[in-house]
Each structure stands twice: as C-alpha cells, then as structure tokens.
Amino acid sequence: MVKSKMTIQTLGWTPALQKSFAGFYQNGFEPARVAVEDKHYYVVFTAEASLSAQVTGKVLHAAGETAELPKVGDWVAVKSVPEENKAVIHHVLPRRSKLSRKVAGRETEEQVLVTNVDTAFIVQALDRSFNPLLLQRHLLMVRDGGVRPVIVLNKVDLCDDVPARLAAVAEIGGGAQTLAVSAKTGRAMDRLAQLVQPGETIVFIGPSGVGKSSIINRQLGAEAQTTTEVRASDGKGRHTTTWRELIVLPNGGLVIDTPGMREFQMWLADEGVHETFPEIEALSAQCHFSNCGHTREKGCAVLAAVEQGALPRARHEGFVKLQREQALLGKAAQRRQFQERIRKSRAARRILNESVPEGF
Ligand code: GDP
Ligand code: ZN
Predict the structure, then answer these.
(1) Closest ligand to 298 CA?
(2) Ligand 1: which residues within 6 Å by Cβ?
(3) Ligand closest to CA 293
C-alpha cells in the first residue's frame, strides 16, 4: 500500500478538535475526516491512511434526516481495521460550518453538501458570462453556512474596465474580500494563495467555465498525488482507488473538490438561470409539462405570454440563450470529468504496477 503523506493537521485537525475528542480517544476511537460520500459508503482519511467506511446501524437509525449522516468534510470518530483498509463510523462531530441547499418542494429538507469549510472562493469571470445575481446568491449561501466568502474575479485579462467591475461588485459584496485575478497570466495569484492558511479547508464555487480548475491546478499548484492510495489486494483480487477529492495545496491548505461539489455547481448555475428570470420562473408553474423548456412545448405558459405581449420577446430570448449556454457548459464539464476519470485510472494502473510486491 502506498500511504498518503498526510498528517491529521494537514486534514484540518485543530487543538480545539483534539480537546473535544478526549473522551473518544479513551473509548478507543480515532478521528478521521470524510473525503468521499456515495450513498452509505464513505472514504475517510485518518492520519495514516485512507479507509473505506460505513456508519454503524445506530448512527443510521438515529439520523432521521439525511443531513445528520456524515457528509464530506465531517470529522468522525471511527474504529478502524487498518489491515483491511476499513473503518466503521460511530459518531459525527459537531459541524463548524456547512454549505447546503434546501431541497425544492420540501421546505424542511436540507441537503448538506460539504461541512467544516473555512473559506469559499466564489468565482466569476470578468467576461460576458459575468453574473452579479448568481454572485449574490452564492454569497448568501456561503454566509448562511458560516463560511468566509472571498470573491474571485477571474479572467481579468479579458476585461477592459476592471475598476467599474470592482465597483459594481463592491456594491453587492457586503464587505467580502475581493480579488481580480487571472489564472491565465498568473496575475494576483500569489495574493490568492496567501489567503489560504495551512490546515484551512476551502472550496471553490462558481459556474462552469469561470476558471476554477485552472486556478486550483495550474496556479495554486495542487498536488493530486498526495491523496492517492493503492490497495494491493483484499482477497477478491486487486483493487485500485485513486481520488483527488481532497487536494492538498503546497502551503498546506485543503481544497475539497468532490463530485458532489461539481453537482452542486451545476445546480447553482441552473438556479441562477431561474433567478435571473423570475417572471419566467413564475409563469412556468402554469406550463402543461413540469419539465417544460419553454421553447416549443405544448401548453407552455411562457410562450403564451410572449404571444399575448405580456412577456417581452427579448426576455424570453435571453432566457433561452442562457439556458442553452448552461446546457453546453454542463456537457463540456461532463466531458472534462470523463477525460479526467480516464486519466486517473491510467495513473492508478501505473502506480499499481510499480507497487505490486514481487511474487504477486
Ligand atoms: P471551471 O469550469 O470553472 O473549472 O473552468 P476551467 O478552469 O476549466 O476554465 C475554463 C476555460 O477558461 C478554460 O479554457 C481556461 O483555459 C480558461 N481560463 C481560465 N482562467 C482564465 C483566465 O484567467 N483568462 C482567460 N482568458 N481564460 C481563462
Ligand atoms: Zn413552458
């Protein structure tokens, strides 16, 4: 097994957590941080290794609402079986912060996406896609969850009136720290990096295409391989697991970039379309089909409003255009994810070949 280079501090463990864990240590538990959540299967990191984990039946039953089950970012008390790379999650520690969304239609249900985040970098691009409404929505969500927002205006190289944009953002930013950067030229990237303290957990939020991965990978110099682990054999043949959901930055910050986060981005972007066109959102309740795209569907209340002159044609066209752009961005993002998966599995195979002991 190739062990990860992480320490528990790299994962964001603090003296305060250490203190609150005293009773758990006495009862033979060790602390771990949830890196991946897939239905009821988890991957957790301890100081020594990454382990596949499940919760006890007790935790499962006690968690009436799914929000109480472990989420990515949570600190949990586990009993581990290191020889088998397995762990059982017995307790979820209280959360310091969280990013969540309310599930549409069911007012009380909250879907927690990621927890114990210190800073959220809310990214927008200073090009035609710049969307102040979406930025405001993200700010609200981040502040709601007790997370510090930093507004990152990327692609500053494409903007010819930066002061005007900064002034516009200052009006809606509510005092949030704001940086105009370029992942392409590297401008102000050092200042961005300085905002991340060792042991801090950060996330990047923003629509597809604004440059989040460029910032994380090319500029902050993320080291994906530190979270790579290979399990040589578990009796059922060889297993290889690699992931980069927890990315350790060179200066010690931790970026959470889970598939859940990416889904979240899609959802937020989609929500942005609707928030930008509230009158269309309101009309759509009367469309015949609940999933109406408002382009040529039968019984579409939006098209009817355009015909009757109640909705300006330009608003409808703007909506359709933005929706199409989002769909294209979504497809591009999916394609990138697919390519990334292939690249990862190749890298994993390479590592496996190197680390298979003789005689296997
Ligand atoms: P993400 O979907 O938010 O992760 O965005 P990506 O990092 O994949 O970037 C989307 C596109 O924008 C890519 O083609 C990048 O090369 C480009 N891009 C990223 N940052 C910049 C920048 O600062 N300036 C310019 N001109 N292009 C950028
Ligand atoms: Zn419709």
Answers:
(1) 2
(2) 154-155, 157-158, 182-184, 206, 208-214, 333
(3) 2
Of residues 76 and 282, more confidently modeled: 76
Domain check: are 27 and 82 in the same one? yes
- Which of 138, 192, 214, 258 gets mutated to test ligand 1 (max ligand atoms within 8 A of its CB)? 214
Taking only the tens place, the pLDDT of each residue in 153-192 is 999 999 999 999 999 999 989 899 999 999 999 999 999 9
Q: Are residues 145 and 259 in the same domain?
A: yes
Question: How many domains, the chain?
Answer: 3
Residue 124 lies in a domain: yes
Residue 136 CA to ligand 1 center (angstroms) comes to: 21
Query: 21, 91 in Cβ contact below 8 A?
Result: no
| pTM greater than 0.70 | yes
Within this chain, do residues 105 and 201 fall inside the same structural domain, yes or no? yes
Q: Is residue 3 part of a domain?
A: no
The closest alpha carbon to 238, from 357, 115, 87, belongs to 357
Same domain for 136 and 122: yes
Angle between helical axes of 259-276 and 132-144 (0-180°, round to 10): 130
Q: Are 241 and 351 in contact (CB under 8 A)?
A: no
Do 272 and 281 form a contact (C-beta atoms < 8 A)?
no
| Six token digits for residue 314 | 């330009």
* 192 inside domain: yes
Q: Give 119's strand partners.
A: 148, 202
